[in-house]
Amino acid sequence: MAKHLWIRRSMQAVSLYVIGAFSYYGIFRCPFAVPYVSCENCPVVQCPGRQLWLPVWIAILSSALVFGRAFCSHACPGGMVAELFSRVAVLRGKIRGVTDRILSYGKYVALLLSIYLFWFMHNPRWAVPIRTGEFVQSTMLTFEHAFPLWLIRTGVVLGALALGLLVPFFWCRYMCPTGAVLELVGWRPMVRYFMTSSCTDCGKCNKVCDLETRPGLNNCTNCGDCAAKCPNNSITFGK
Hints:
Blueprint: H1 2-28, H2 49-67, H3 70-74, H4 77-86, H5 97-104, H6 106-120, H7 135-145, H8 148-162, H9 170-174, H10 177-185, E1 192-195, H11 204-208, E2 235-238
Antiparallel strand pairs: 1-2
């Protein structure tokens, strides 16, 4: 378990170094209604997304075909923040059953809204990103000159991430459109964690999982943290 966790933490650190700034710009500086997808037309010339957006998306979608939603647990900077917040979440295990299933559709609603804004509204610009000044100063100027819709969008994203302090992985489980894409693309990945016939349905995997799910079910990110906690060794990784 320690080796597995060390590998996952190392992959998160590398990802944070490679796409961390890209992720930051997408939330705090991207002028578009839907960030990360119109980078070739973006006026923020210093954003690393101008070079990274296409290879990063190809890598993310390719990984979904092979490993399902593993990007969320191994490489997503937002997922890493959500995981840190989940350590102190006070409503762990409180949202489940029908409520959890209904809220889980939220990320698909966010995906449909993103598709509508991108394809039918041509991804309008809602901010005027100021390209002068220091890093933090430029960010503050963007907030000062942004349209109300951009402020609402950014506030919703930050608010949903902050709710992870109450409900573990609130953003990832209920609102992330990228997570919805990865679940649709990787609904039958080539390899994944899965439960074998020796499973006794004891529920320990649900309790150890920060996303409060189990292998193969909705919101499973193939992190593998539950495998070492299974008393019957009923969780394995493979085809």
